[in-house]
Amino acid sequence: MLPLNREFSHVARSMTRDLLGYISHDDFISFAGGAPDPTLMDASGITECVRTVLDDSGPDVFQYSVTEGEPELRQAMAREMQRRHLPARADNILISTGSQEILFLLARVIINPGDTVLVEAPTYPAAIQAFTMVGARVIPVPCDDNGIIPSELERALRDYDPVITYLIPVFQNPTGRSMSERRKDEVRRVLAGHRSLLVEDDAYSPLAFDGNAREPLCHTYESESGAVYLASLSKFLSPAFRIGAALIPDWLLQPMVVAKQVSTLHGSVIDQRAAALWLDRVEPDGVSSRDRALDTMRATYQARCNALRTQLLDIVPDGTHITDPDGGMFVWIDFPEELRPQVNTLSLIDDAIEHEIAFVPGTEFFPHDSQPTSVYRNVERKDSTTIDADTKLEGQLSIRFSFAGNSIPVMRTGMERFATVLQNALR
């Protein structure tokens, strides 16, 4: 048996993905995944667009295509980014198999083993995986309710000279927080003085409860390396299409195209053309399919978010902090330090699964492999998630809950089960 690649051996499994194996039971309630509610998607409109592509296209729809993406989808994604106040041009857009592929390609193109990447603390775990796989040292930078703290970012940029700074400024995964406009200005000023490439992940901004577009961090941003802006259709068209898009600076575009050629050649022609049709589709009453689907999702998710927070406030002990997002899919809770070691959210998973409920412990959202005190890779995911109660891990007192996938009555049942799990831990 051959040994695995050294860098790959440091990549932790995704607990969020592992938990999918438990949720096939009808009575199981999951708050774990970052998936949209499929009942809110425009199934009829999407179906019509797929049929139109198959019926009206020539034989080239079944053929190989260009790596950069179908021209009509690149144009549609440029318009989507322009809605978000970005001066996007189709020529600088690369279509990807989900925005996750862009993170993987960036890691391959930019990072050498031993290079440093800065991320928010906490951050999206699959980004940690992508950067760790190529041997990067991933450094979490402290945040507050307004996002990454500029003074801490300045210190990390100075101390580590990172090649990439990866940020989720709007409805952040996992916390749901958004940077204030003042904070964005401060972060732009700090980053502009360094060579680090800004990678802005903006999967959630279309889900703003008030429907107003949030200005991206990379808007008006100028620096030596520039910025890569990531967008996704997974949260409001369908994750099954696996379509992401990146706005890439001129100097980096062709290397990224070559990397995608090596990786997947190109994305699905049928899916890309159908997605482009759907983004521009107007229904008989004059409302676009995109806007109607998003209006439904925003209203539903806002009601679910409010219901989940209300239920959590009735359950958690005094001193627990619960984020109050105004968009996206997630709520983040931090238990007070004095509850350690009674509340070890990584260990709570065993009891939670016994009660047919799932959530994601906060430890999943920190790059523990970059910390010498970590035992993260030694945690057994399926049969036992217990660790030494004296071992302190970042995120051990935190939980991410998704409010997107369950109706309010189902969430109420799930919260009753969570209350039992929490009471068992606090005895």
TrEMBL record:
Residues 47-365 form the Aminotransferase class I/classII large domain. Its cofactor is pyridoxal 5'-phosphate. Keywords: Aminotransferase, Pyridoxal phosphate, Transferase. The keyword Transferase applies. Pfam families: Aminotran_1_2. GO terms for molecular function: pyridoxal phosphate binding; transaminase activity. GO terms for biological process: alpha-amino acid metabolic process. This is Aminotransferase class I/classII large domain-containing protein. It comes from Corynebacterium kroppenstedtii (strain DSM 44385 / JCM 11950 / CIP 105744 / CCUG 35717).
